[in-house]
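sry for the spam today, last one i promise. C-alpha cells for design, 231 residues
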C-alpha cells in the first residue's frame, strides 16, 4: 500500500473492494453454468481458481487494515510539522539564553543541548521508515541518551546566575512539547503499517496475483476446449 495520505488510502481501499465485488459477481454467474455442464476439467479449474482467489482476498483484507492505519505517514507528518515547530521554539529559546550570557560553561552546556536535540530529531525521522525491531530499539536507546543530555542541561541551568527564569521556562515548555510529540511518533512508527503494507504488496500480493491469473488462464483454457466453447 503506497498511498501517502488517509484520503488516498481510503480511495485505494474502496477501488479495490469495488473491483473484488465485480469479480465475485462474475464468479457467481459462472459457477452455475459450469456446474450445469458438469465437465470435470472445468470444475477442477474453477475450484483451483476459487482457492487462489480466496488467498488473494486474504492478502487484500490485511492490506486494507494496514492502509487505513497509515501509521508511518502519520508519524512522519507529526514529526515534520508539530515536532519541527516545537524543536524550533526550543532552539530559539536556547539561542536567546546563550546571547544573554558570556559564561563559557553556560554557553557550552546550551550548545550541547541544542546539538543533542537536533540529533534526536534526526534519529526520530530515521526511525519512521525503519523495518526491523532491533534497529528501532537501537535508535530509541540513542534518542533516550540524547534526551537525557538535554534534560540534564535544562536541570543544571536552573542554578546558573546569568540565565533568565522566564527564558528557561520557555525552553523547558518547548522541550516538553517536543518530548510528548516524540513519544507519539515512536508509538506510530512502531506499528509500521506502511512499511509492512509495502512488503506485503511487493511480495505476498504479487505472488497471490500471479497465482490467480494462472488459475484463471487455466480455467479459460478448459472452457474454450470444452464441447460448449461457443456458449
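last one done:
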Amino acid at each position: 500500500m503506497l498511498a501517502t495520505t488517509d484520503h488516498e488510502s481510503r480511495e485505494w481501499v474502496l477501488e479495490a473492494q469495488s473491483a473484488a465485488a465485480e469479480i465475485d459477481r462474475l464468479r457467481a454467474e459462472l459457477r452455475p453454468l459450469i456446474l450445469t455442464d458438469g465437465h470435470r476439467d472445468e470444475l477442477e479449474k474453477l475450484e483451483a481458481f476459487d482457492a487462489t482467489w480466496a488467498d488473494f482476498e486474504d492478502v487484500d483484507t490485511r492490506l486494507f487494515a494496514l492502509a487505513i492505519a497509515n501509521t508511518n505517514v502519520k508519524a512522519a507528518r507529526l514529526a515534520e510539522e508539530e515536532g519541527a515547530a516545537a524543536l524550533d521554539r526550543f532552539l530559539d529559546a536556547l539561542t536567546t539564553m546563550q546571547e544573554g550570557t558570556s559564561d563559557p560553561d553556560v554557553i557550552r552546556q546550551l550548545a550541547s543541548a541544542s546539538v543533542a536535540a537536533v540529533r534526536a530529531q534526526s534519529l526520530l525521522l530515521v526511525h519512521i521508515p525503519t523495518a526491523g525491531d532491533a534497529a528501532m530499539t537501537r535508535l530509541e536507546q540513542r534518542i533516550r541518551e540524547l534526551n537525557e543530555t538535554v534534560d540534564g542541561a535544562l536541570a543544571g541551568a536552573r542554578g546558573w546566575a546569568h540565565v533568565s527564569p522566564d527564558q528557561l521556562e520557555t525552553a523547558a515548555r518547548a522541550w516538553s512539547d517536543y518530548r510528548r510529540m516524540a513519544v507519539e511518533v515512536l508509538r506510530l512508527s512502531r506499528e509500521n503499517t506502511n512499511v509492512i503494507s509495502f512488503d506485503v504488496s511487493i511480495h505476498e500480493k504479487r505472488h497471490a496475483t500471479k497465482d490467480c491469473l494462472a488459475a484463471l488462464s487455466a480455467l479459460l483454457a478448459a472452457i474454450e476446449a470444452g464441447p460448449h466453447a461457443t456458449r
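Residues 6-69+193-225 form one domain. ok im logging off now
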